[in-house]
Every structure is written in structure tokens, then in C-alpha cells.
């Protein structure tokens, strides 16, 4: 059984019995976080870019737990310099880990690190394929990602202002053609206030793709 837990904003945690993988660990300063960073246990941390709401508590959690940080080279170097074990990758690269594999995808967004790139991740986690888009606009090559990988769950930002908003995210879902969609990166602050139920209705009615709203502190079982 694989579970996916939301810690609010773009922070999600994939877990099976003894392996846990954390995306964008933003706990400190996250108004939606329901867990303290000191209570988190994980084996891997996938950090999409250097903005505070994504890099977040990466270093402190990695140092305490010994988790390996997986990120683009510039973000990995930053974590490495602070004593973390980091595995550097870059856009277009794929690498096998003990849980499956990670493919680094493009994301159209600032990196938060000089010379760096923001990215997304396609993670094969014990046979389930999860696309974590990171902070990004919609882009046409999402259809190519959907062709290259058979995506079971796509985590897409819907907050607008900093990333794509609900209508673009709905079109992104149609390009990716995943089995399921999970919205993220909304309602953390008023500037990214959105109605996820309206997004769910739109995607399900127009594109026939199930949308699962996972509220902060909740977890779902990936089927
Ligand atoms: Ni960002
Ligand atoms: Mn962000």
C-alpha cells in the first residue's frame, strides 16, 4: 500500500512500509502545515527549486534523518555545502533508486539559486508513477511527458499568480492524460486563493480525469 499525504502548499509525502519520500518540505512558515518539521521522518527529499516555500526545511530534515536530497545540481550543491547527502540530477535525466526511478522534468519558473533551474519530478515509486509538476506554467511538452511516462497521479499547481491557475492546470491535465489529478500550491495565502472543488468539477466533466483534493494533514491511498 502506498499513501500520499499533504502537508499543505506543495509539500507531499509518499510512503510505503519502510520507505518515505518527501516533496518540497515547506513546514517552517507554512500556515497550512499540520506537522512540525522535527516530527517528519523520510528517506528521500525531492526539492524542486530554491524558493523558500519549496527548499523550506530541506536541510534541517535531511541532516536530522540522513535523508538523501534529490534535486537539480545547483540546489543539490547548496544542500551539500550545508552537510546534506545530495544526489544531483538535471533536466531530462533519469536515475534508478531503491524505490524505483526519478526523471527530472522542465518547469517554467525561477530557480531561487544563481544559475539554477526550477524543475518537476516524475517518480516511479514501487510501480506507481507520480508527476510532481513543481512551480510551473502550462507548457506544450506536457503531452510529451504523458507520452514518455504512464502517469498514474499528476500533482499540479492551481494557485495562479506564481504558477498556472485552475483553467491552465485543467488544460495541463488534458495534455498529460494522467490516471488522476491532485491540485496543489493554492490557498496557502490570499494571493493564491482558489476553489479546488470548481477545478475538480471542470477537469472531471471536460476531460473525464478523476481529481482528488487532499487537504493539509490528510492522506490518500494510491490505487
Ligand atoms: Ni517558486
Ligand atoms: Mn511556490
| Name given to the CATH homologous superfamily | Ribonuclease Z/Hydroxyacylglutathione hydrolase-like
General shape: globular
* CATH T-level topology: Metallo-beta-lactamase, Chain A
Beta-strand content: 25-35%
Q: Quickly count the helices.
A: 6
CATH structural architecture? 4-Layer Sandwich
Tags for this entry?
single chain, 223 residues, alpha/beta, Metallo-beta-lactamase, Chain A, 7-stranded mixed sheet, 6-stranded mixed sheet, 6 helices, 28% strand, globular, binds nickel (II) ion, binds manganese (II) ion
Concise structural overview:
With 223 residues, the protein is α/β, with parallel strands linked by helices. It contains 6 helices and 13 strands.
Map the helices and strands.
Layout: E1 2-6, E2 12-15, E3 20-23, E4 44-46, H1 52-55, H2 58-65, E5 68-72, H3 73-81, E6 86-89, E7 94-97, E8 100-106, E9 119-125, E10 128-132, H4 142-148, E11 153-157, H5 166-176, E12 180-184, H6 196-207, E13 219-222
Parallel strand pairs: 3-4, 4-5, 5-6, 10-11, 11-12
Antiparallel strand pairs: 1-2, 1-13, 2-3, 7-8, 8-9, 9-10
The structure holds nickel (II) ion and manganese (II) ion.
Amino acid at each position: 500500500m502506498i499513501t500520499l499525504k499533504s502537508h499543505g502548499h506543495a509539500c507531499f509525502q509518499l510512503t510505503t512500509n519502510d520507505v518515505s519520500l518527501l516533496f518540497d518540505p515547506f513546514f517552517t512558515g507554512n500556515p497550512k502545515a499540520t506537522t512540525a518539521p522535527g516530527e517528519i521522518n523520510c528517506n528521500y527529499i525531492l526539492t524542486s527549486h530554491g524558493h523558500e516555500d519549496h527548499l523550506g526545511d530541506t536541510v534541517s530534515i535531511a541532516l536530522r534523518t540522513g535523508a538523501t536530497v534529490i534535486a537539480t545540481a545547483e540546489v543539490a550543491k547548496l544542500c551539500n555545502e550545508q552537510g546534506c547527502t545530495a544526489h544531483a540530477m538535471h533536466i531530462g535525466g533519469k536515475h534508478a533508486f531503491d524505490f524505483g526511478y526519478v526523471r527530472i522534468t522542465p518547469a517554467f519558473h525561477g530557480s531561487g539559486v544563481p544559475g539554477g533551474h526550477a524543475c518537476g519530478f516524475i517518480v516511479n515509486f514501487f510501480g506507481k508513477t507520480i508527476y510532481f509538476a513543481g512551480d510551473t506554467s502550462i507548457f506544450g511538452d506536457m503531452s510529451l511527458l504523458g507520452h514518455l511516462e504512464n502517469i498514474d497521479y499528476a500533482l499540479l499547481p492551481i494557485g495562479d499568480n506564481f504558477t498556472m491557475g485552475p483553467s491552465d492546470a485543467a488544460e495541463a491535465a488534458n495534455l498529460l492524460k494522467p490516471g488522476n489529478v491532485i491540485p496543489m500550491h493554492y490557498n496557502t495565502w490570499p494571493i493564491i486563493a482558489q476553489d479546488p472543488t470548481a477545478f475538480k468539477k471542470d477537469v472531471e466533466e471536460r476531460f473525464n480525469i478523476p481529481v482528488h483534493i487532499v487537504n493539509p494533514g490528510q492522506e490518500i491511498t494510491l490505487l
